[in-house]
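Batch job 17 of 40 flagged for manual review because the log was empty.
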Amino acid sequence: MKTMTCKQLGGACDEAFSANTFDEIVNMSKNHGMKMFKQKDKRHLDAMEKISLLMQDQNKMEEWFNQKKEEFNAL
């Protein structure tokens, strides 16, 4: 089991997610992000804006995603 925080995954807080696979931890992070979006949490909305901008360039988004996956695998 490996643990990463919301911040480590591109978010805005120190909430920790623990999972056996990177896909599981990404899912947990997405669910957390949706919850924060519904609550209109400014810090998370700002972080989502940065990710949204990154998503406009497929290569940069893929590079970022692979970097996060490598960080997870290194834990």
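Reviewer: the log was empty due to a logging misconfiguration, but the result itself is present. The longest helix spans residues 22-38. Unflagging and moving on to job 18.
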